[in-house]
Amino acid sequence: MGRLLYLGIALACVAAAQDDPAGDKAAFQKVCGACHSTTMIADLKTEEEWADTVANMSSVGAKGTEEEFSRVMRYLSRNFTTVNVNTASAEQIAPVLGIAVNAAQAVVDYRAAHGEFKTLADLKKVPGLSASALDARQERIAFR
What we know:
Distance between the termini: 30 Å
Shape: elongated
Oligomer: single chain
Helix content: 55-70%
Number of domains: 2
Radius of gyration: 15 Å
Number of strands: 3
């Protein structure tokens, strides 16, 4: 399967708003753990970079159903993905920040009305976002 297919799967997963973190983790452990330790993730990546990685793993033999690969991408999005809050859609922002899509849409709307975010302090000005939740995920937030 190609990178674009995995990226499409990832976006479809988020859009479907399935919230089954335990099932997503189990799929990640099954699909990825069949070849290597699932604790070997050392770096955060963008959603597109994870799509490339998953496509590459599939091309070298990773086995799983389309649903399992969707769950793998959802797990990676939720736990090991960075997001540029100045360019991402609400569907891309939500899983990375651990917020609902409607809260992520508030980020997009605020950005459209006030311009790009430059700092975490700017992002904290979006009504309805938890400053402590943003602080906890600050290493996953990019502004460029």
